Amino acid sequence: MKINNITLIGMPGAGKSTLGVVLAKILGYEFLDSDLLIQKEEKRRLYQIIDEEGEEGFKAIENRVNASIETEDTVIATGGSVVYCSEAMEHLKSIGKVVYLRLSLESLEKRLGNLKKRGVLLKEGQTLKSLYEERVPLYEKYADIVVDEEGKDLEASLQALLETLQKEINK
């Protein structure tokens, strides 16, 4: 069995874009960052879209853009909030494998800088902890594969991801 696309999901700072680029090179795949696709289609930065359209407006755009991705042999790095978009997630699952890059809240706190500038979808007064607790069940729900990144650097995370994908291919 050939895995066509690989979609990476997970919290902001989990390494979806960073790992995705390297994974695409190793597999000889294309790389697509769906946040960049949203910015390109909307001609605005993520945080501007969130500021101007609000949370629901942003989700509608994110859902539309991710649900319209038609590609093959591509590693897709998604925005952390894509799991709120059921139509987009069903589409991404239908065109390949969905991989959840799992990382503890403590590790994420160390990695993350300014959440607003990163275009992270936070409700008024929401903390990273409450966001994490809200999203983790959704990541687990949609994941075909879970890769635990805890205590791993980029190289070790990549190795774990490749080994897991290899097992999936050999099933």
Would you spell out the secondary-structure blueprint of this structure?
Blueprint: E1 5-9, H1 16-27, E2 30-33, H2 34-42, H3 46-67, E3 74-77, H4 86-94, E4 96-102, H5 105-111, H6 128-142, E5 145-148, H7 154-169
Parallel strand pairs: 1-3, 1-4, 2-3, 4-5
GO molecular function: shikimate kinase activity
Protein name: Shikimate kinase
Catalytic activity: shikimate + ATP = 3-phosphoshikimate + ADP + H(+)
Describe the fold and architecture.
With 171 residues, the chain is of the alpha/beta class. The chain is built from seven helices and five strands; from the N terminus they run E-H-E-H-H-E-H-E-H-H-E-H.
Helix and strand run: EHEHHEHEHHEH
Spatially, the strands of the biggest sheet line up as 2-3-1-4-5
Oligomer: single chain
- Average pLDDT, all residues: 89
Enumerate the spans where pLDDT stays under 50 for 5 or more consecutive residues: none
**Annotation, overall tally of beta strands:** 5
Main sheet specs? 5 strands, parallel
State the helical fraction.
40-55%
Radius of gyration from the CA trace? 15 Å
Number of helices: 7
Strand content: 5-15%
**Mass-distribution shape:** globular
How many angstroms separate the termini?
Answer: 8 Å
* Sheet/helix structural class: alpha/beta
